[in-house]
Amino acid sequence: MPYYRRFDQPAPDPAILARLTEQQRQMQERIIIQKPDFDLRLIAGCDSSFVGEDHILSVFVLLSYPSLEVLEKVWHYGEVELPYVPGFLSFREAPNLLKAYEKLHQKPDLIMVDGHGISHPRRLGIATHLGLHLNKPTIGVAKKVLVGRYKEPALHKGALSPLEYKGEVVGNVLRTKDNVKPVFVSPGHLMDLQFATQIALACAVKHKLPEPTRLADHFAAVFKKLV
DNA sequence: GCGACAG
DNA sequence: ATCTTGTCGC
């Protein structure tokens, strides 16, 4: 059975997936991978959690950089239309995430997303998808690999090894904490791998996940109790 | 053909 | 992602 059928969710219409795939192929041409040119002072982190089978709670946390103090935290609760299918995560989560983003009073210079950037079958992980929609620099920080091969990085914080896919380095497997499973960092949009990796490590203070996404995940759990 | 598969 | 207890380590 298809991979997604292992999840307790309805099967997506093959015709719909074909349409979404085509949509990603078109967006692919607009992706810009380059060293960002700005003064990083405000960085945001976002994450989503699900309630039941068709409701989603998305959170955006705004932090100062490099002090990493929480300046804002907003959320939006809504419905989801599509089931989870590897490679199409953005179509399930992005709509609600964008609504949460609109609630930020102050906009960030950069957004860290929980998921992959270009380390995706069609270079359109949710971090890249959001970056294109918001025309904003984004970096993806995922907890698991989606595509590509890599060698296990050394066990100490800061160690990393390239994630290769189809002959290209699309990300870095980065150890953000000693003796703890590494994270997968990749540029989303208006960003390059070196900068993305540097920022992810700079934001990894005391935990495996960098502060932006770690706090977004934390507050998602907190707000979830209120809905 | 047989696995692998973000959240 | 979510369902779930106690437990090992900093």
Automatic annotation (TrEMBL):
One of its GO terms (molecular function) is endonuclease activity. The keyword Metal-binding applies. Its cofactor is Mg(2+). Its EC number is 3.1.21.7. Coiled coil: none annotated. CDD domains: Endonuclease_V (cd06559). Keywords: Cytoplasm, DNA damage, DNA repair, Endonuclease, Hydrolase, Magnesium, Metal-binding, Nuclease. It catalyses: Endonucleolytic cleavage at apurinic or apyrimidinic sites to products with a 5'-phosphate. It holds the Pfam family Endonuclease_5. It comes from the Bacteria. The keyword Magnesium applies. Mg(2+) binds at D47, D114. It is found in: Cytoplasm. The record marks Y84 as: Interaction with target DNA. DNA repair enzyme involved in the repair of deaminated bases. Selectively cleaves double-stranded DNA at the second phosphodiester bond 3' to a deoxyinosine leaving behind the intact lesion on the nicked DNA. PANTHER family: ENDONUCLEASE V. Belongs to the endonuclease V family. This is Endonuclease V. It comes from Pontibacter aquaedesilientis. The lineage of its organism: Bacteria, Pseudomonadati, Bacteroidota, Cytophagia, Cytophagales. The gene is nfi.
